[in-house]
UniProtKB/TrEMBL annotation:
Provenance organism: Pandoraea sputorum
Underlying gene: mhbM
Protein's UniProt keywords contain Oxidoreductase: yes
EC number: 1.14.13.24
Name of the featured protein: 3-hydroxybenzoate 6-hydroxylase
Span of domain FAD-binding: 9-343
Catalytic activity: 3-hydroxybenzoate + NADH + O2 + H(+) = 2,5-dihydroxybenzoate + NAD(+) + H2O
NCBIfam families with a match to the protein in the record: PRK08163.1 (NF006021)
Classification via InterPro entries: FAD-bd (IPR002938), FAD-dep_Monooxygenase_BioMet (IPR050493), FAD/NAD-bd_sf (IPR036188)
MF terms (GO), sorted A to Z: 3-hydroxybenzoate 6-monooxygenase activity; FAD binding
Pfam families: FAD_binding_3
SUPFAM superfamilies registered for this protein in UniProt: FAD-linked reductases, C-terminal domain, FAD/NAD(P)-binding domain
Required cofactor(s): FAD
The entry's keywords: Aromatic hydrocarbons catabolism, FAD, Flavoprotein, Monooxygenase, NAD, Oxidoreductase
Family: Belongs to the 3-hydroxybenzoate 6-hydroxylase family.
Length: 405
């Protein structure tokens, strides 16, 4: 350790990525001041999927068992045609998947995965919270960083990690780029199992792929609830953001869909509407004593269900980089971004490509429906190895062309 004083870092944002980053650094002896703009530390949203790489990261953070206790372990992942019901692809994520990747595939409510990390954060005496604190600017010099909140109060530390999501204030200062609004709208809802059609109560994430749209459902909280997600190409010019939605709008985009998946559109009593966006990957996201993580660094669309998984990988890698750099934050951030930029860019591009696959129509739909015919489970696992096979113990392995950067 190079510092003669207690090292301190500011973590901006108290979502999944922010809590994980705070825990990863606190586990290395760093004092953390976590700044969250909401009045309370919590999480909104519905369900998310956790692949084996997410559990590898959660285990490295020491919260894997807490997350497992709140998860639903699924039997398979299924992609179906929303027009004719045919199965396009099905991946077994039971015992063979666990044997291959060393961890399960699960689904969980976003609030439950957040709580699993929050509990460990609250037990750590090195982590202090400041809620109702919105960062508006950032300054740094050779000796430390200062962030200024909406009240003009200055918060100082040795380093800052921006985990403040897709509209990151820290990223705006460091990079200042614009988001890429996709034009795709996502509606999310959670319904109780009693309100879920019986013939859709399957222990699996099921994706129904339709023309310019798709639907997803899977169980949550021991099967007591179901997560419903619908996505469509909007007719409007969209602005990145979240608001309440309407059933009438949803139904207007899903004409021609088979009655089996269509019936779930009537079940939610309320919907939340996300106009989605991502950002083009950048070659640098760490500048001196400041870096970014999770959606602040690499916001991506939801089509391969890796947003939270990648934020968890980021946090573990950041903690490992800090240790490898002997407590030098600038060097740690350099190592962290070199280990993460190419990988997260590949995931981001993969999500964009899968969005096109899901929403194929006409001849493109016929091509999509033939892509995985005859593929064995081993071949599916081989294709997923680069993504689901991530391990914490080699998280700092650098991409060869970045090794000497």
């Amino acid at each position: 350790m190079t510092q003669s004083h207690q090292p301190k870092a500011l973590v901006v944002g108290g979502g999944i990525g922010g809590l994980a980053a705070a825990l990863a650094l606190a586990n290395q002896g760093v004092q953390i001041e976590l700044l969250e703009q909401a009045e309370t530390i919590g999480e909104i949203g519905a369900g998310i999927q956790l692949a084996a790489n997410a559990f590898a990261a959660l285990d490295a953070l020491g919260v894997g068992e807490a997350a497992r206790a709140r998860s639903v372990f699924t039997d398979h992942i299924t992609l179906r045609d929303a027009i004719d019901r045919s199965i396009i692809a099905e991946v077994d994520v039971g015992a063979p998947y666990r044997e291959r990747f060393g961890n399960p595939y699960a689904v969980i409510h976003r609030a439950d995965i957040h709580l699993s990390i929050l509990e460990a954060v609250q037990r750590n005496p090195l982590i202090q919270f400041r809620t109702a604190t919105r960062v508006v600017s950032l300054e740094q010099d050779a000796y430390g960083v200062t962030v200024i909140d909406q009240h003009g109060e200055r918060h100082t530390a040795d380093a800052v990690i921006g985990c403040d999501g897709v509209k990151s204030a820290v990223r705006a200062v460091l990079i200042g780029d614009e988001p890429r609004v996709t034009g795709h709208v996502v509606y999310r809802a959670v319904v109780d199992v009693e309100n879920m059609p019986t013939d859709l109560q399957v222990n699996a994430p099921v994706v129904w792929a339709g023309p310019n749209c798709h639907l997803v459902h899977y169980p949550l909280r021991g099967g007591k609830q179901y997560n419903l997600v619908v996505t469509f190409h909007s007719r409007e010019k969209e602005v990145w953001g979240v608001r309440d939605g309407s059933k009438e709008e949803v139904l207007s985009y899903f004409e021609g869909i088979d009655a089996l998946p269509h019936q779930m559109l009537d079940r939610p009593t309320s919907w939340r509407r996300w106009a989605t966006a991502d950002r083009d990957p950048v070659e640098q996201w760490s500048f001196g004593r400041a870096t970014i993580l999770g959606d602040a660094a690499h916001p991506m669309t939801q089509y391969i269900a890796q947003g939270a998984c990648q934020a968890l990988e980021d946090a573990v890698t950041l903690g490992a980089a800090y240790t490898a750099a002997n407590g030098d934050f600038t060097e740690a951030f350099r190592r962290y971004e070199h280990a993460r930029i190419a990988r997260t860019a590949r995931v981001l591009y993969g999500a964009r490509d899968m969005g096109r696959v899901y929403h194929a129509k006409g001849v493109d739909r016929w091509v999509r429906n033939s892509l995985w015919k005859g593929r064995t489970q081993t071949q599916f696992y081989d294709a997923l190895q680069w993504l689901h096979g991530w391990r914490a113990e080699n998280c700092l392995s650098q991409t060869p062309w970045l090794a000497d950067a």
